[in-house]
Structure prediction request, 293 residues.
Amino acid sequence: MKKKDIILLLIIIFLLLFFILLSGLVYNTLQTYQLSNSFLQSELKIQQDNSETVFSIDKITYFSSADADIQTNSNSSFTISNLFQYTDIAIFINPNSDNLTNKNTLKSVKLGNISYSLKPNIGTQNLYYKNLNEFATSKFSNSNIVSESITFDTTSEDLADFSKPILYNNCANPITLCYVNSKIQDNFTLENNISNISHNGSLLKICGITLNSISCNINCTVEIINNLDELYTCPITLDIPLSTESQTVYGGSLTLKDNLNYKFIKRGRFFIVRDGSLLKICIFIFSTKKNRP
Prediction:
């Protein structure tokens, strides 16, 4: 092969490689543009979808106290077993309109992503579903323990069975939970110079439990699917109250109404797709932004 032919062949190979690289660069540029444009369109849709507040949490009510198994001994002393501190929690969902439609009524509600940002130094902590009719009492059922999440059914019936997790679809009743820190003190004997003893938060003081040692904060996410099958989410923090400027749980009990400004963000649409004989539940998520007041 002549030298001239070799040079020509090399030029052709170079040009081919150049055009391959150029086409790859153009393709990647177009892909990046499409992804960027898709992201911008999604962001615009999020802003449009959340231009109005459909659901919010404006109030959480807490009731904190304590209880224990108390035995009176023959020498008139007391033995306290399983001292536990509990806080009943009522989370109120606001539909933000007196005009109830499929958009601002509940189809299902889930509370998940439960974690502790601050855990007590003593005791064993658990979260339970709380029967609304037993709110502000030391009653709770081990069958209602919440591990990773809890899902609430919804109803429009006049009388709901609050022994199980259920909400009126018009947001008439709150999400009710019970935080319990058990086994704070066990087999603790009080001397007989105590004339009487009460089943309330005063037990914590009598047993020498400091409030700092049982302080607790819980993080979780509330998810709502409305009757248009739209998904709304809202991360919240539950600050377990043991004291205020004017009172502490040592006085027997403490009630706190916390006014808040949590707003739910619309994440997408929840729907079912048929794939052969299988049902696949799909959720389009437009954003993973978190919402804090």
Residues 3-49 form the longest helix (47 residues). The longest strand covers residues 56-72. The radius of gyration is 29 Å. Confidence is low (pLDDT under 50) at residues 271-293.
